[in-house]
Amino acid sequence: MKSLVLLLCLAQLWGCHSAPHGPGLIYRQPNCDDPETEEAALVAIDYINQDLPWGYKHTLNQIDEVKVWPQQPSGELFEIEIDTLETTCHVLDPTPVARCSVRQLKEHAVEGDCDFQLLKLDGKFSVVYAKCDSSPDSAEDVRKVCQDCPLLAPLNDTRVVHAAKAALAAFNAQNNGSNFQLEEISRAQLVVKTEILLTGWAVRWHFGNVLYVVEREAGKNRRRGSDEKARRGLFGKGRKHPKGV
């Protein structure tokens, strides 16, 4: 029994260390900190941020596992699992993700869990399959670091929608006739202590300029349960692409 427990512990500690080549193995398993693995992960992150239709950019948190399969007649297929963290840069923000700040836990941040397949051919990576799921940190984790910090509210909450529309109307009224339209509601938090609603939203000017605004709208003694969550998927279902695309 002790030998079995030791064997299980060693298997867990093996983690993402390089797996040796051996009989029956048709793939190789490089280290998670291998430069080639990290390059593949960064290509995956770029793909995520280019593909996001709305919300905030994500950055790499850690690489969980990687397998590399030989392809015929040439090339290799990288199967990689990564964890991502939400940043404070909106997807329409041109700032490179490497320069974006990671959203702090006390802001009720969102994390992602992604599976990718990337084809490496002639030294270049291309995504052939991607599937990501994302969810906010638990309310319990937020409360551990900040008891009074607001939690995320569902984006379809009528109070959220009303606050965004009211804030946009007030914003347009102060801009000398410039016509801004609501592009999206990115984040929303109901603040119980000060009885206000914080909404993060993006508006697009009719000439194409983009402006990111955070506005405050007065609340009416509305309280929100700690079990409410705003969940969204980066892609939803997995996407498959022709190899080399």
TrEMBL record:
Compartments (UniProt record): Secreted
Region (Disordered) location: 222-245
Record key words, sorted: Disulfide bond, Glycoprotein, Repeat, Secreted, Signal
SMART domains linked: CY
MF annotations from Gene Ontology: cysteine-type endopeptidase inhibitor activity
CDD domains: CY
Biased composition (Basic and acidic residues): 222-231
Chain ranges of the Cystatin fetuin-A-type domain: 27-133, 144-191
Biased composition (Basic residues): 232-245
Source organism (scientific name): Homo sapiens
Major location (coarse): secreted
Pfam hit, one: Cystatin
PROSITE patterns listed in its UniProt record: CYSTATIN_FETUIN_A, FETUIN_1, FETUIN_2
Cellular component GO terms held in the UniProt record: extracellular space
Endpoints of the signal sequence: 1-18
Descriptive protein name: Alpha-2-HS-glycoprotein
Matching PANTHER family: ALPHA-2-HS-GLYCOPROTEIN, FETUIN
